[in-house]
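Wed. Picked up where I left off yesterday with PHD finger protein ALFIN-LIKE. The coffee machine is broken again, so keeping this brief.
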Amino acid sequence: MASFSSNIRTVEEIFKDYSARRAGIVRALTDDVDEFYGLCDPEKENLCLYGYPNETWEVNLPAEEVPPELPEPALGINFARDGMNRRDWLSLIAVHSDCWLLSVSFYLGAQLNRNERMRLFSLVNDLPTVFEVVTERKPVRDKPNADSGNKSRGSTKRYSDGQAKSNPKLAEESYEEDEDEHSETLADEFWIGCDICERWYHGKCVKITPAKAENIKQYKCPSCMKRGRQ
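Structure written out below (tokens, as returned):
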């Protein structure tokens, strides 16, 4: 892998990469959703949803190299497929995909200066999030012109309130939102770490609640349990 310093990119290049990866993920969760759903077999090991710079998408196992060349998307998106309402499951994947897209962009932009980072975020923020598109909270818009950006393992558990903050500008938009329908999707942000592979999993995806986790002395993720049976 080439040294990081040799891969310095401009704001425009990073935003183009972000837009293309986002387009692939949006396609997977909307136009190609039936194909995506079929690929997320809960009987398989940890699967991830990847978006690529050519606007395509793929469901695949995570990268094996450590550390990976780029930040990795959420692991184990397939485990909760049959245990959740389909729309809520897709919404949850959309939220995690938004986080991944931002992490990749700011990883690529690690050597940007303060003003360039602000410009990059401004460009990204001009597009609806994947979550907004999947839940139909915003219409899909054409991507903005690049110039517009000028204007612990073991018993340790992670918690966060996961509540989205309201944006006053949304009131000016010409669309209606259902504020309650997907509130549970964002509110449940309990994670649990596997004691074997040391990976972290979203509680809902592996069907573990905070109460249930308190009684688990050693947690094994679904993949490690399958490997133990082989």
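Quick read: The longest helix spans residues 86-108.
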